[in-house]
Amino acid sequence: MTTDTADPLALFLGVAAFAAEKHRMQRRRDVEASPYINHPIALANVLKNEGGISDPIVLCAALLHDTIEDTETTYEELRREFGPEIADVVAEVTDDTSLKKEARKRAQVERAHLKSPRAKLVKLADKICNLRDMVDRPPADWSLGRKQEYFDWAKAVVDGLRGAHGTLERLFDEAYARRPR
Ligand code: NDP
Ligand code: ZN
């Protein structure tokens, strides 16, 4: 597998194939149970085609952002396959699974400002895409109140990373403006 950022398209496609394979058995929580890989691809698409971000490390980390958290993938595996820069960004956006859910969610809010610039971009794209999904293809069986809580938590995380990227923050605010009511 190439780790060569001098050929970013080869790297990106290698990463896309890897992420698709890792997420192949997973589905999103919407009624149609969309393929999970749609979500990491959506992040990369937002970053490049709405945010204007061309950094291949960021775009590859976006494709891989849920692999450690939600599949059997390890940090060492990502480092071996794609190099330390990509693996480190993915690790930064991975929750500490030793914490309980409430503590994990609190940690995201409290630690957002500590993230590297690249990790902040991936986080912003993740929250943009999840808020859009929450409106356009919402999780089956979530109450209005639970969706509203999710919007407010996502905003608390993003408020901790403001200053990272004006365009992405505006896109987040536009997504937040559709908060269910
Ligand atoms: P989760 O983190 O469990 O679920 C949201 C995550 O699901 C997203 O961050 C996203 O993560 C993923 N996801 C998968 N499919 C979709 C989709 N179609 N649209 C959007 N996101 C999707 O959320 P919580 O269970 O923690 O709930 C959020 C809030 O609700 C919390 O504040 C919690 O306290 C509260 N809550 C309320 C309950 C209630 O009944 N009122 C019950 C439980 C919690 P990824 O990017 O990783 O795929
Ligand atoms: Zn995600």
Give a written overview of the molecule.
By secondary structure, the protein is mainly alpha-helical. The chain has one domain (8-176): Hypothetical protein af1432 (Orthogonal Bundle), CATH 1.10.3210.10. Helices cover 64% and strands 0% of the residues. It is built from ten helices and no strands. The chain has helices spanning 8-22, 38-50, 56-64, 67-70, 75-82, 84-92, 101-111, 117-136, 144-159, 166-176. α2 packs antiparallel against α3 (56-64), α7 runs parallel beside α9 (144-159) and α8 (117-136) runs parallel beside α10. The longest helix is centred in the C-terminal third of the chain and has 20 residues, at 117-136. Bound molecules: NADPH dihydro-nicotinamide-adenine-dinucleotide phosphate and zinc ion. Zinc ion is lined by residues 39, 65-66, 126.
| Whole-number total of structural domains | 1
| Average pLDDT over all residues | 97
Please state the overall shape, judged from the principal axes of the Cα atoms.
globular
Query: Tally of extended strands?
Result: 0
Order of helices and strands: HHHHHHHHHH
CATH secondary-structure class: Mainly Alpha
**Total helical segments:** 10
As residue ranges, the low-confidence spans are none
* Bound molecule kinds, no repeats: NADPH dihydro-nicotinamide-adenine-dinucleotide phosphate, zinc ion
Helicity, as a percent range: 55-70%
Decide which structural class fits the backbone: mainly alpha
Percent of residues in beta strands: under 5%
* CATH-assigned fold name: Hypothetical protein af1432
- What would you give as the CATH superfamily? Hypothetical protein af1432
CATH architecture: Orthogonal Bundle
Distance between the termini: 47 Å
For the largest beta-sheet, the strand count, sense and barrel status come to:
none
The whole-angstrom Rg is 16 Å
